[in-house]
Amino acid sequence: MLYGEKEIKEAVIEVWDNPYPDRDYEINITFSEFTCLCPRSGYPDFATIKLKYIPDKKIIELKSLKLFLNSFRDVYISHEEITNKIYNLLNDLLQPRFIEVIGDFNPRGNVKTIIKASSERLLP
């Protein structure tokens, strides 16, 4: 096993103390090389995962997030499930004032999917 594969296999998201917990500020993270596998066909799915949050007491360490997201490259999982799984995990770990996760999946078979999970109430 190569060192990068080992790091991905052992990935654990790290959280750090927010250096400015008394201030509202927005953190935007874009992960443009996300991959997973379609649970029906096994074909690869490619996406950009966008994370936006207003931290409270904790922030996310970026390398650990990158390794965690890379751990899905061989996982059979739907667009809806992976976006909500990332949202749930980060919301539980960070307990931010606001969080939004968007899975912007590349078209496959002429179908494009964008999944959004947010702590903000969505309009009907």
Please provide a written account of the structure:
With 124 residues, the chain is an alpha+beta fold. The chain has a single domain (3-118), classed as GTP Cyclohydrolase I, domain 2, CATH 3.30.1130. The protein is 26% helix and 38% strand. The chain is built from three helices and six strands, in the order H-E-E-E-E-H-H-E-E. The strands form two sheets. It has a four-stranded antiparallel sheet, covered by helices on one side. Strand 2 and strand 3 form a beta hairpin. The mean pLDDT is 95.
Would you tell me the structural class of the helices and strands?
A: alpha+beta
Strand order of the largest sheet: 2-3-5-6
Question: Which band does the percent of strand residues land in?
Answer: 35-45%
Q: Please estimate the helix content.
A: 25-40%
Helix-strand topology string: HEEEEHHEE
**Low-pLDDT regions:** none
CATH class: Alpha Beta
CATH homologous superfamily placement: GTP cyclohydrolase I, C-terminal domain/NADPH-dependent 7-cyano-7-deazaguanine reductase, N-terminal domain
What integer is the average pLDDT? Answer: 95
Number of helical runs?
3
Q: From the 3D coordinates, which CATH architecture would you assign? A: 2-Layer Sandwich
